[in-house]
Amino acid sequence: MLNTKIESALNEQIGLEGYASFLYLAMASWSEREGLQGCANFLYRQSDEEREHMLRIFNYINEMDGYALTPAIAQTPHDFGTIQALFDKVYAHEQKVTNSINNLITLSYEEKDHSTLNFLQWYVQEQREEEALMRDILTKIRLIGDGAQSLYYIDKELEKINRATAAKETTEGENT
Description:
Blueprint: H1 4-33, H2 37-63, H3 83-110, H4 114-144, H5 148-175
């Protein structure tokens, strides 16, 4: 059974994950409008992934005899200026999520909630991977530049990352 501090903090995390899903959805729409289908496809996948993260916590709370709450999602921005500015926002948001997960870990230690501590370990690994991926994308954008011709190459790079991620997920799904 979850204590009220843990349950409340996990419900806040649901809101953060839900916001991330909607933020990446808005970013995908902006990318499509800008003619960057590879970027859009990558961001649609990220949006789906964030929703899965939200549902994982939602289900955990209910499984632990808590009460998972559907979050109110704040309006996301809809204009991102440049692809680099967009991915700067993605990276900053992933860092915010990582910080929130770390705070949940600390709270779980303080409350001696070993089950939640164990549950959150998956998120620690996931956030490490997410931050590394977003740093890699930003490095590529900085190397390629974000001028008109460069956008074509950035778009192709993100489509390549998206395909590799999809292939990895398919392989992992077959192995479980």
